[in-house]
Amino acid sequence: MAPTVNDSPGARLGVVVGVDGSRTALDAVRWAAVEAQLRGLPLQILHAAPYTADHTRPGLRRAHDILARAFTVARRTHPELPVATNRTEDTPVCSLLDVAERAELLVLGMSGGERFPEAFVHSVVLDVCGRAPCPVVVVRGASTRRTGDTVVGVDSPRVDAAALEAAFTDAKRHGSRVVVVHALHGAGPFRDHITGHEQSAHDAALARLSDQMAPLTSRYSDVEVQLQVIHEQPVAALFGVAVAARLLVLGTRSRGAAARALFGSTSHEVLRCCPVPVMVVNPVAAGDAAVLASTSTVTRDERNPHDRSELW
Fold first, then answer.
1. 144, 89, 172, 126: which is closest to 270 by C-alpha?
2. N- to C-terminal Cα distance for the chain?
3. pTM for the whole thing?
4. At what angle do helices 161-174 and 196-219 cross, to 10 degrees?
5. What pLDDT does residue 240 have?
């Protein structure tokens, strides 16, 4: 039988992965096990099972089987990894947000189907990503690539400081390169022969991005960085770069009751369709994010008027 974690109030957690019995959830367990091992943290497997509230034998057996299967997958991925399981009788969203208050990282799986159970999982994932205080990684399918760039989408380094901090920390941990993508779509998509106006807007945006990134790149001088300003809609820009990446990082805009509405259509589309794992970072999730914001000298008021960049 899989061990059950002592989830006492206030106890700090390591990496937590939510499971629902699906194959996609087991893919998320594999990804989470690798990440927990690399971070030197324990893994907790969480199953929200409100159907066990009546404590009937079939419901308890189902929950046990789901957790036991996930536990086995985690141990097969990393036999020495400390793994524990936990079952709650609360709803999935409430259960996941509760552990997110104490977790270093929350990992969820999301399939690409449109059937009702899959649509329900999509809704849970979006709710949690828009409101969780800790970083959330969404794994789609068997997306367990071990190598590749860490791609981060930014509107402004000042606004997306937490996402950038998380991306650089991840890249340093994995020994990968950071690719910073800024979608400059006011002038339309790149063509074989761009106009002088488009080239000027591109060069100005790239220079501005480089200037704002300087404090962070200086602190992470051992991490290779590539800045990309792409004349394209944000989703297309991100997918074009992330297709060969190991991880894509995005930031949220706020926390609270309106967080999901402010989460953004771009983020929704990326989570729905991105072929690689996506990390969503709340502004409160990176403790050192304020360093970048406090040292950057360029404000949003100094933006090029032709730079109609999309908020992620």
1. 126
2. 43
3. 0.81
4. 60
5. 87
